[in-house]
């Protein structure tokens, strides 16, 4: 099962490459506050593995999600998923040079939310895929023109790691 933001929501074309039984409940634009509604009605306990991507939208200042609220809410969501093999796909960052001057994101802010999430994941014994590190060699080519979403090259770089934790 995939939950979270657009980094997973946009994987719809690649789902068959992961596993035929993958449920993708991720929604573009989601923050940590949206995860509960994504889980409601999905019977998360039926899924042997859950891949979660969150943090990029939370880092946008206009969302008003403090690091404390982010970490607390993420911990609660992970508590709901206790018993499933959960993996956190850490946000890859953004290509600041491609963003409009008034864009809400900076890599410094995304880095803070990523670090907070990874700290929560360590406490909860959740595996982490560091998208930022896996995409580093591809640089800006890993991102679409908007500088926030991933390109086909970005997804191809992440797919082996995603497949390894979701396919059973």
Q: Key features?
A:
single chain, 168 residues, alpha/beta, Rossmann fold, four-stranded parallel β-sheet, 7 helices, 38% helix, globular
Produce a short descriptive summary.
By secondary structure, the protein is of the alpha/beta class. Helices cover about 40% and strands about 10% of the residues.
How is this structure best described in words?
38% of the residues lie in helices and 11% in strands. With 168 residues, the protein is an alpha/beta fold. The chain has one domain (2-166): 3-Layer(aba) Sandwich (Rossmann fold), CATH 3.40.50.1110. Helix 5 links the parallel strand 3 and strand 4. Helix 4 packs parallel to helix 5. The longest helix has 17 residues, at 107-123. It is globular, with a radius of gyration of 15 Å. The termini are close together.
The rounded distance between the terminal residues' Cα atoms is: 12 Å
* Gross geometry: globular
Biggest β-sheet strands, sense, barrel: 4 strands, parallel
The succession of helices and strands, N to C, reads EHHHEHEHEHH
Topology, pairings included?
Layout: E1 2-4, H1 6-9, H2 15-18, H3 35-39, E2 49-53, H4 67-80, E3 85-90, H5 107-123, E4 127-130, H6 131-135, H7 152-166
Parallel strand pairs: 1-2, 2-3, 3-4
